[in-house]
Amino acid sequence: MRTKTLFLTAALGAAGVATSMAQSVFSVNAVGYVNVDVPKGFSMIANPLDAGAGNNTVAKLLASVPDGTVVYQFVNGAFTVNTLDLGEWNSPNAVLAPGGGAFIRSPSATKVTFVGEVMQGNLSNPIAAGFSIMSSQVPQSGKLDTDLKFPAADGDTVYRFNNASNSYVTHVLDLGEWSGGTPVPAVGEAFFVKAGKAGAWTRTFSVNN
Fold first, then answer.
1. Tag placement on the chain: N or C end, fewer CB within 10 Å?
2. What's the distance, CA 89 to chain centroid?
3. Domains in the chain: boundaries
4. In the beta sheet, which residues pair with residue 82?
5. How confident is the model at residue 27 (pLDDT cuts 50, 70, 90)?
6. How much is the pLDDT for 81?
7. Contact 115/33 with Cβ under 8 angstroms?
8. What pLDDT does 2 receive?
9. How far apart are CA 70 and CA 85, in angstroms?
10. Tens digit of each residue's pLDDT (9 = 90 or more) over 135-155
């Protein structure tokens, strides 16, 4: 799932963050768009920008996907199924907010354009005990723990879905080391987390620092 991010006016100050934000130019108010390439078949997708109150819905965010697309969200330990049929979603108001995510099954390769603001300031994303689908609340790629500040604990497992092999790439944190290598999710990519206990993914983020 390749991504391209564009923000509309000024530059990002910190070189370290700039290198991890794929193909990016930033505005003073950090408003812009992210293009996410969605392959045919299954993949995991995330909304990396806040479209505003009432706008982070499947119907509004995925308005350009082909008929027959299905979105699967993981809620209370089970999947919900949301199908686009003859231009209508089963659940058009299902929310796909930054920090969450979903499986998407597309009948053909397509592209989704997310438009909105970069979330900034003191951010917090709750982590459920057990399985959940998560993503970065900001449009940034990098090492999940050191760059994106995910508070992984020994025994936590991250599952990234590979469209080409139709299987998961599994990363387990054991004695401070990730088996399978440190997970590096792309901008607009969601992933499964299996956490040993509930917590929160917190970080302070600004496009100017």
1. C
2. 21
3. 35-117, 121-204
4. 71
5. very low
6. 98
7. yes
8. 56
9. 9
10. 999 999 999 999 999 999 999
Contact 184, 144 (CB under 8 A): yes
Which residue reads 């907010």 in tokens?
97
Residue 41 sits at the vertex; the CA angle it makes with 156 and 132, to the nearest 5 degrees, is 25
Least confident piece of the model among 1-5, 69-73, 121-125, 193-197: 1-5
CA–CA–CA angle 95, 101, 107 (5° rounding): 95
**The token pair that represents 101 in the structure block:** 């995510």
**Radius of gyration of the chain from its Cα atoms, rounded to whole angstroms:** 16
Give me the DSSP letters along the chain: --EEEEE-SS--S-HHHHHHSTT----TT-EEEEEEEE-SEEEEE---SB--TTT-BHHHHTTTSPTT-EEEEEETTEEEEEEEETTEESSTT-B--TT--EEEEESS-EEEEEEEE---EEEEEEE-SEEEEE--SSS--S-TTTTT-----TT-EEEEEETTTTEEEEEEEETTEEETS---PPTT--EEEEESS-EEEEEEE-TT-
Task: Give the separation between CA 53 and CA 48, rounded to whole angstroms.
Answer: 15
